[in-house]
Amino acid sequence: MSTDFELWSCAAEGDSAAFGTLFDKYAPNVYNHCFRRTADWSAAEDLTSVVFLEAWRRRGEVRIRHESALPWLLGVANNVLRNRQRSLRRHRTALDQLPSQAYEPDPAEDIAGRIDDEHRMREILAMVNRLPAADREVLALCVWSELTYEEAAVALGIPVGTVRSRLSRARSRLKDLLGREAKPQPGHRWSERFSALRTKGEKL
């Protein structure tokens, strides 16, 4: 098995097959990251395509210096998410000219389930979006995408210590916000989705 460093080096020389291997390896991670930030499956598909198009365009100028290419890819995803509408417009024409390679969910996936997932994710984002943008990004990378502090630091271009402090602050602020909310009725989605966060402070 080639390492990410080797695959990226080959891709930088124009090897589309090597880049395709990286796409197959990390498209689901990028797709899920984009969904958790938008609560929209369709938008997540478009944004995933934009991320990998941007990665392909920059393959010659970027060097992967870590074991995994995922932190850098999620860093690109964060930039695309920050400029979501502008990024989609700018890349739409280019995407239309490429062979179809967008990440496709399982075609047997239940549509009703996708809609329900979007609804629940919007509920979560309604609370998470009350945090400062810097806290949201660290929370999404370290908690949802399960990057290490070091990997999140690569994705965000900040020191590891800053990642630690922002994540601690995000968890503290989120718990405080949850504590201010009126208690939902038993069985309410809100309670179910955040129960682990209240008790452990680790996961959403």
TrEMBL record:
- List the NCBIfam families: sigma70-ECF (TIGR02937)
Q: What is this protein called?
A: Sigma-70 family RNA polymerase sigma factor
Which superkingdom does the taxonomy of this entry point to? Bacteria
Q: Provide the RNA polymerase sigma factor 70 region 4 type domain boundaries.
A: 122-174
Query: Which Pfam family, an example, fits this chain?
Result: Sigma70_r4_2
The answer to whether keyword Transcription applies is yes
Gene3D superfamilies associated with the record = 1.10.1740.10, Winged helix-like DNA-binding domain superfamily/Winged helix DNA-binding domain (1.10.10.10)
Ranges for domain RNA polymerase sigma-70 region: 22-90
Which InterPro entries has this protein been placed in? RNA_pol_sigma-70-like, RNA_pol_sigma-70_dom, RNA_pol_sigma70_r2, RNA_pol_sigma70_r4_t2, RNA_pol_sigma_r2, RNA_pol_sigma_r3/r4-like, WH-like_DNA-bd_sf
Statement: the UniProt record of this protein carries the keyword Transcription: yes
Q: Which family does it belong to?
A: Belongs to the sigma-70 factor family. ECF subfamily.
What are the entry keywords? Sigma factor, Transcription, Transcription regulation
